[in-house]
Amino acid sequence: MPETTFLDSTELVLNMGPQHPSTHGVLRVILKLDGEKVIGTECVIGYLHRGVEKIGENRTYQQFAPYVDRMDYVAAVSNGLGYCLAVEKLLNIEAPPRAQVTRVILTELNRIASHLLWLGTHALDIGAITPVFYCFREREEVLKIFENYCGARLTTHAFRVGGLQYELYDGFEQQVKAFCDMFLPKVDEYEELLTNNRIWVARLKGVGILTGDECKEFGVTGPVLRAAGVKWDLRKAQPYSGYEQYDFDVPTGENGDTYDRYIVRMQEMRQSVRIIRQAVDRIPAGPIGKTPKVIKPATGEVYVSIEAPKGELGYFVVSDNSTQPYRMRVRPPSFVNLQALDRMVRGGLVADVVAIIGTLDIVLGEVDR
Amino acid sequence: MADEQNAEGSAPPPASGGVSEPPKQKDAPKPAAAKPPAHAAPKPPPPMAATAWEGELPNQLKERFGDQLTACSSYLGQNFAVVQPEAVIPVLEFLKLEADFDYLVDITAVDYPNRAERFDLVYILYSFRRNERVRIKTMITDAAQPRSAVPVHTGANWLEREVFDMFGIQFAGHPDMRRILLPEEWQGFPLRKEMSIIQQDNRWVRENLGIESGQ
User: B3, B130, B158, B166: which to substitute to probe chain A, counting the most A Cβ within 10 Å?
Assistant: First the structure.
């Protein structure tokens, strides 16, 4: 029998999750450790699998719309926008201008809400407890706007194929403007707390680097790709819903590390405010669009994707000329981005795994669908 | 689903009976009554009204792959190429290395149980440089084991695992061909058309709760 001492290092397999506060839901990561160093991971996912794609095949186009809100539930408006655009493309129709501008406002508000939730929980994971309260305080204002508009705060189902669910309520513009005025100083406040905070910088700089080439290799999109220096945003590259009419920048990073991803998302919130301010001033009068009573697209297939807060959210819809989709494929950004986790944590410290899961900004409802 | 199919199956006889008696059409309510069965009759849907995809890239593909390229089409402004199963990986390689389609957006499948080549395998690609999207489609049989795209695009790993999980398509040469979303012991492949939601629910309730599902 070989003699071993406590100094001999052996591989340690550590199970993290699914019930773990920093896995943002029910992600299970099996870590292979050499001391504190991560030498391999395996993600176990599917705990929230509800068979959204199968449900899609068994519902009519209208009936399926609320289900998409339950995928990325912190950005339900984005999910709904992507779905509506996909079905509209299949029908070869377009929402009227009033509906399009309203969609942009609500989607950008939702991007802010999603980024706020990310910021709060990401900071909490790393040990900064205060930001989560601040973030939820401001997120609440966004959710109030959603509630006033459609009665729901989280799973909004705000849009309909062909336009909007409801006409805008009285005082919508004022409330949105007031939010924008209130919100920008708050972003400064978060940045004051974090951006130059020594602990924050020490925990994030150089952690979980993913280069632009690696992002493309894995199909990683969204803020993670932009933080690696690739200036690519679907709102600019292939504009939809009239995004080409708005003046905004695509923030990028340089190093592709966790800190850059933080900076990029903070900048994106500012850019979203910029878009919202332009949009609120130009909500045109006119119809908000009428949902076709029967949605029965001609036989065919389309792939439509949008820039969701997490990355490229795509819908591949196949129609067989009936009222139900023949195939409803969702291309979820979180699922694809999560695949790069292994590459990002390998060789790093076990404490950084938490920071990297947070910076990927995944929502398990979307990973598992 | 089963009930609907029965209704469809029983519907055609009255419809054809109505057609064989043209004089009766004068009665006002008759055509309206005859309409639903005619609508429900199992008529194959019209095919996709795709047009030819013209341009430099389809010409390059045709030149390079010849007979292995079945069609280059465009539907609602979205381009796709249909290729033979064995040509998929060479086409992906060609597109990645020589046409800058360096981002594999998605891999998915569509099930057509009544077709000899049962599955459509769909690869969605994007090129950052050209800002262009293209879909590569191929038709494979139930027993076919298409080559894995992981050597070309690392990101294909989980996407192919999901296709396997949902459709039971085995990818040859995949580094880790296991289920990804469903538990290892799951029976069947849920996105195949013969797996109805009710049937899966009934079985799950029976096996796990020991009672009959009320669905």
Answer: B158
Do B142 and B198 reside in the same domain of the chain? no
Question: Is residue A156 within 8 Å of residue A79, measured between CB atoms?
Answer: no
Give residue-wise pLDDT tens across range B143-170. Answer: 888 999 999 999 899 999 999 999 999 9
Asked if B48's CB is within 8 angstroms of A301's CB, the reply is: yes
CB-CB neighbors (< 8 A) of A56 in chain B = none
Contacts across the A-B interface (CB distance below 8 Å): 103
Measured between CA atoms, how close is B23 to chain A, in angstroms? 32
Could you report the predicted ipTM of this complex, rounded to two decimals?
0.86
d(CA B154, CA B136): 17
**Do B120 and B163 share a domain, yes or no?**
yes
Residues B92 and B159 in one domain: yes
Judging contacts by C-beta atoms under 8 Å, the chain B residues touching residue A89 are 76
Are the beta carbons of A25 and A363 closer than 8 angstroms?
Answer: yes
How many Cβ atoms from other residues are within 10 Å of residue A218's Cβ? Answer: 28
- The span from the CA of A5 to the CA of A2, in Å, is 10
Instruction: For residues B162 and B65, state if they share a domain.
Output: yes
Check A314 against B135: CB less than 8 A apart.
no
Shared-domain flag, residues B159 and B63: yes
For B101, name the nearest residue in chain A, comparing CA atoms only.
A216
Domain-embedded: residue B175: no
Listed in sequence order, the residues at least 6 apart from B208 whose beta carbon sits closer than 8 Å to its beta carbon are none
The total number of structural domains in chain A stands at: 1
Question: Average model confidence (pLDDT) for chain A?
Answer: 89
Residue A316 is nearest to which of B102, B124, B131, comparing CB atoms? B124
